[in-house]
């Protein structure tokens, strides 16, 4: 039985398919693109791709609940939007390029959430990148499909990230509606490592007074490293103002609202942040643990205000060249396949002399600082680049 569902912008009706989760199918020609304009700490360029709007794992603190468009349909009615055959559109866009950065699956929803078992869009998108020899990464809180690992193994710079918030399985279940068990998440790291892939553990976000115990965080890192992780990424929870009311109610039920309200006194943009001294203490201790265990460490989207301007904290705490712990060059097309631009380490944010030949990607130059790029930019670069000279 299918019901009619109005679009979030009032643009007609879609049939709601009830299983495996309430969802609608849409045709989408949305474009691959780079990081969003404004503040960024991501050292490497990425081609962001997101096949699902809405996520059945449904972490109550996830900023997807603050996004517009079809995400609103998920927030208000629990309906996931599936971009039908989006892998084919991604393939067409990749074929229009002669220069590419690593794919990023996905920036706002889990690629391996339950609905992917029906549509396999994430697996199909990985295949589109890998068959052209373009690297791709994913971030997940779900069990990683065996085929995804096999596909990544065939591409030199592809890798996986696993998000683990706590060692406490009961608490994990309280923080999200679905997702892999704690044991399955550590097994994800092991399976990536045994396949010879770069394996990242993300403690992202740390929730003050709930998952920030020093001893437990250190044990989480030790277990992740023992499971095969060779890089750790961390952040501390931000509270988007548009989500604050609901989040305070949830934190009240967890018994930490009062302490959090005292801690979250810093505002940057449209979000509240924990006080900077608290955040720095947590990051200091995590980096010390990583150094003792011989793995690299970085932060994700963490800033402090200086003279009213947000300044990234990775320059203080990151121990790797790139924030994901792996150096992935820009790729250029030669003889029908993409190949790494020789000598490029992919750290576009700090680059001042672009070995790839694309001056705009050298964001270490003041005039290029923290730009955002679109598919049209990649196509423009592709028209002027001569790949054989860059290899």
Notes on the protein architecture:
The protein starts with a strand and ends in a 7-residue tail after the last helix. The strands form 6 sheets. Strands 4-8-9-10-11-12-16 form a 7-stranded parallel sheet. A 3-stranded mixed sheet has the order 3-6-5. The protein has a 3-stranded antiparallel sheet with strand order 7-19-20. Residues 1-6 and 387-391 have low confidence and may be disordered. It has 391 residues and is α/β, with parallel strands linked by helices. Helix 4 runs parallel beside helix 5, helix 7 (182-194) packs parallel to helix 8 (214-227) and helix 9 crosses helix 10 (257-263). The chain has helices spanning 70-77, 86-95, 116-119, 121-131, 146-153, 169-175, 182-194, 214-227, 244-253, 257-263, 276-293, 314-317, 375-384; strands spanning 3-6, 13-16, 23-27, 46-49, 52-53, 80-84, 99-100, 102-105, 136-140, 159-163, 198-206, 231-236, 239-240, 266-268, 271-273, 296-299, 303-306, 309-312, 331-334, 337-340. The radius of gyration is 21 Å and the shape is globular. It has 13 helices and 20 strands.
What tags apply to this protein structure?
alpha/beta; single chain; 32% helix; 7-stranded parallel β-sheet; globular; 391 residues; 13 helices
């Amino acid at each position: 039985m299918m019901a009619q569902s109005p679009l979030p912008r009032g643009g007609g009706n879609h049939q709601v398919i009830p299983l495996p989760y309430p969802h609608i199918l849409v045709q989408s020609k949305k474009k691959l693109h780079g990081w969003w304009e404004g503040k960024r700490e991501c050292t490497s360029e990425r081609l962001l791709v997101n096949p699902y709007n809405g996520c059945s794992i449904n972490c109550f603190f996830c900023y997807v609940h603050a996004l517009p468009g079809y995400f609103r349909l998920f927030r208000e009615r629990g309906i996931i939007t599936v971009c039908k055959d989006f892998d084919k559109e991604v393939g067409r866009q990749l074929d229009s390029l002669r220069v590419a950065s690593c794919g990023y699956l996905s920036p706002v929803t889990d690629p391996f959430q339950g609905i992917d078992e029906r549509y396999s869009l994430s697996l199909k998108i990985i295949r589109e990148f890998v068959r052209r020899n373009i690297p791709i990464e994913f971030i997940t809180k779900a069990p990683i499909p065996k085929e995804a690992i096999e596909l990544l193994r065939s591409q030199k710079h592809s890798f996986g990230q696993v998000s683990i918030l706590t060692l406490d399985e009961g608490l994990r279940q309280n923080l999200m509606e679905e997702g892999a068990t704690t044991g399955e998440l550590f097994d994800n790291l092991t399976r990536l490592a045994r396949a010879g892939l770069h394996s990242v553990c993300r403690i992202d976000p740390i929730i003050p007074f709930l998952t920030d115990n020093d001893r437990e965080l250190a044990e989480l890192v030790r277990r992740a490293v023992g499971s095969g992780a060779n890089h750790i990424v961390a952040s501390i929870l931000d509270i988007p103002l548009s989500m604050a009311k609901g989040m305070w109610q949830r934190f009240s039920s967890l018994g930490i609202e009062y302490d959090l309200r005292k801690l979250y006194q810093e505002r940057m943009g449209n979000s509240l942040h924990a006080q900077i001294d608290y955040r720095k203490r947590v990051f200091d201790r995590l980096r010390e643990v990583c150094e003792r265990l011989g793995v690299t460490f970085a932060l994700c989207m963490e800033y402090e205000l200086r003279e009213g301007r947000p300044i990234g904290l990775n320059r203080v705490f990151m121990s790797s060249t790139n924030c994901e712990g792996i150096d992935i060059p820009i790729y250029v097309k030669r003889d029908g396949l993409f190949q790494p631009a020789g000598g490029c380490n992919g750290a576009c944010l700090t680059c001042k002399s672009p070995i790839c030949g694309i001056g705009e990607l050298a964001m270490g130059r003041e005039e290029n600082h923290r730009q955002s790029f679109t598919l049209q930019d990649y196509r423009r670069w592709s028209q002027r680049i001569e790949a054989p000279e860059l290899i």
